[in-house]
């Protein structure tokens, strides 16, 4: 699977975990040069607290376009150490 935004590959891996229709990529699959910090957090009743990352590609910012669960609840342990995308990021084979 490949995650792309603004014409650039953000992450690529054959080892994704699909939860609720979202592909969670291993953290090691991220192209860190396009990832930037975000303070945004949300809460999921069954997965726990999500933290977000923003993307910076070719001078354009996509705020909070990726999320991860640093300490997921036991039901969501399979996505520990993984990152998912939204907000216009294309995820395809």
Précis, in short:
This protein is mainly beta.
Task: Report the sheet-strand fraction.
Answer: over 45%
The count of strands amounts to: 9
Largest sheet: 6 strands, antiparallel
Count of discrete structural domains: 1
Helical element count?
0
State the helicity in percent bands: under 10%
Query: Residue ranges: pLDDT <50 for 5 or more in a row?
Result: none
Q: Please name the CATH topology.
A: Metal Binding Protein, Guanine Nucleotide Exchange Factor, Chain A
Overall pLDDT level? 98
For the largest beta sheet, what order do the strands appear in spatially?
3-4-8-7-6-5
Structural class: mainly beta
Q: How many angstroms does the end-to-end distance come to?
A: 4 Å
The CATH architecture category equals: Beta Complex
How would you describe the shape? globular
CATH superfamily: Domain of unknown function (DUF427)
Secondary structure: elements and pairs:
Blueprint: E1 2-5, E2 8-12, E3 17-19, E4 22-26, E5 35-44, E6 48-57, E7 60-68, E8 82-85, E9 90-92
Antiparallel strand pairs: 1-2, 1-9, 3-4, 4-8, 5-6, 6-7, 7-8
Can you characterise this structure?
The protein has no helices and 9 strands. The protein has 93 residues and is mainly beta. It has a single domain, classed as Metal Binding Protein, Guanine Nucleotide Exchange Factor, Chain A, CATH 2.170.150. The mean pLDDT is 98. It holds the Pfam family NTP_transf_9. InterPro entries: DUF427, DUF427_sf.
